[in-house]
Each structure stands twice: as C-alpha cells, then as structure tokens.
Amino acid sequence: MNDATLAVGSLHAQPGTKVRGTVRADLGTLTADMPLTLVNGTRPGPRVVITAGVHGGEFTPIDAVVRLADRLEPGEVHGQVVICPVANPPAVYQGRLNVSPVDGVNLNRVFPGDPDGGPTERLAAWLFTHLLDGADVYADLHCGGIDQVLRDFVGYRLTGDPDLDKATAELAGSFGIEDVLLGLTADGGNSHAAAARRGISAVLVEVGQLGQRDEATALRRVDGLLKALRHLGVLDQDGSAPAPIRQWVWSAGVTAEATGLWYPEFSFDADIIGEVAEGDLLGRIVDPTDGTEHSVHAPAGGRIFYGMHGLTVAPGTELAALAVPWDPDTAARAHTLRTPGLGAGSDEAGPRP
Length: 353
Fold this sequence. Notes:
Distance between the termini: 37 Å
Strand content: 25-35%
Number of helices: 7
Shape: globular
Oligomer: single chain
Radius of gyration: 20 Å
C-alpha cells in the first residue's frame, strides 16, 4: 500500500484521495495562484508531473489535462500524479502569447529558473522546486500557438545516461504519436531539457495548432496521456500494443531577418506541410511600406514540423523548423545539423531537444 502524503505547498492529498485547489507562488513583484490537482493513489508507483499552459494561446493542452484530472481516480492509480493545467497564469490569462506580459520573458527558455531573478525566472524556479523535485516522470504539454502550424510530435533529450535515455525513449513512444523528435543534448532552458538534466524522464508533447480549441483534439490528447500512464504502470494495462513511431532530429531552423509581412510557400495544413530541399523557397517577407521583398530559402533539407502562420514578423521570429529521419546515416553526420534557434515559436529551440 502507498502510505505517503502528496503535498504541494498548502495542498495535501492523503493516499487514496484526489485534491484540487490553488497554491500561491511568490514571484517577487507579484504573486500567481497556481491551479493544481493532486491524485495520490492507493498503491505504490512513480510520481508523474504533467503541466500545460506554459505559454498563452495554447488552449487544447489546458483543456486536455483538466479532462484528465476529472477522469483519474485514486483507487485506480499506482503512485502519484500532479497536474498543473495553467503553469504560467500571467501569459495564459493576460497575454495569450509565448512571452509573459509581466516581463516579456518566455518561461520555456529559463528553466530551471532563478528564485532571485525576475518574475518569470522565479516562476520557473517555483515550478521546479514545488512540482519537479521528487518527480520520476514529467510531461509538458504544448501545441502550435495562435500563429503557428504544427505537426504533432513528442520531443525528448538525450542525456548520456543509458538507462534514463532508454526509459524516456519508451515513454516518448507510448503516447500514440507517430513522430518522435530526439535532441542530441539536454542543454537549454526548455522545461523537459532542464528536467532531464536532473535525472527525470521528461518529454515535450505537441498536439494541435493555431491555438485552436476543439473537443476531438482534446480527447485525443487525453487518450494519449492515458496510454502513457498505462505504459508507466500508473494505470493498469489494457492489452493494447504500442503504435509504431518514426524518429527524427532537427536539421535546421529558419528565422526572419527583416520586419514585414510573411507570405509562406508551404501549406497551412499540418498534415501536408511537406518536405523541402536545401535552397528551396520557403516564403517571402514583404515590406508594407514600399513592397520590397526578402526571399527566405531553406538552409537545409528536411520535413517542416512547424511554421509561422501569422502575417506580421520581425527579425528573429521563427518562420519554420526542419527535421530529418534519425538513422545511422544521420547519426554519422550529426555534426552538420543546424538546429532551430531561440526564437519566439518552438519549444524545441536549441540546442536541440
């Protein structure tokens, strides 16, 4: 039997109970009320942390984890599940953008945070101290934001720890999502990278695009989360076989070098965004003042996994990210791969996943 109390701040869940509420996070110049659901199972097992709402304008992940919290019953759970549906309240409720309206900082670039830093750095530190410390598994849920088309994928980082990397690879393949993007290092300020550096089996799950909210996508995400929880042994197995996956690695990122209006050449349909060769025209940036055009070409070949849908762009805005299949040939030339940069769009921004 599980006899450990699950506690986050003032919230406490005894074994066999589910507790919902908020915990106040001190961000220095302001506070944030963090919504949480704690599910403390009756039987021992791993501690799994699931977050959504790290960015504003990403609605389906929030919807999905709230639905998951409704469905989980402590009597069916082995271990403990911590769900935070809105990990960045200022961005979700006020800005609806990747950056916080409080300080203009992207939360998913500053993990594990700084308890003495600015508000967003303090928020990252709060999340790691209160949620990630003691976790065995972490899943951070995202989708394409309000200006981004995106193919569904799961991302994770290689750490060099064979056991951890194997466990995370198996976790990444358990969600029923065909495309898995692996990163060659665990560097950077992304949530799953910082968690991986602490020995936590951590993944980024990207499902949905354009910030769209629809029930079918939310339910698909819940189904994927339930599959992962069964894989982890948090829920009993249902006898289903894991779906086949394809592994990819980032080959290049494309950012705007001018201010203007973005006219991409690739499709806005996430299922057929397609593949490009090095040098192919990706789109044009047009100066609205005089009509001057800046052509944007692919710096390398690969499949487009996410792309900018919005019309207005500025220098540094991420326009697209490309990936290639991960196989022995790709591994042999890994040093030639150019990874996406630290623009406003991707959560797999480099160094890569």
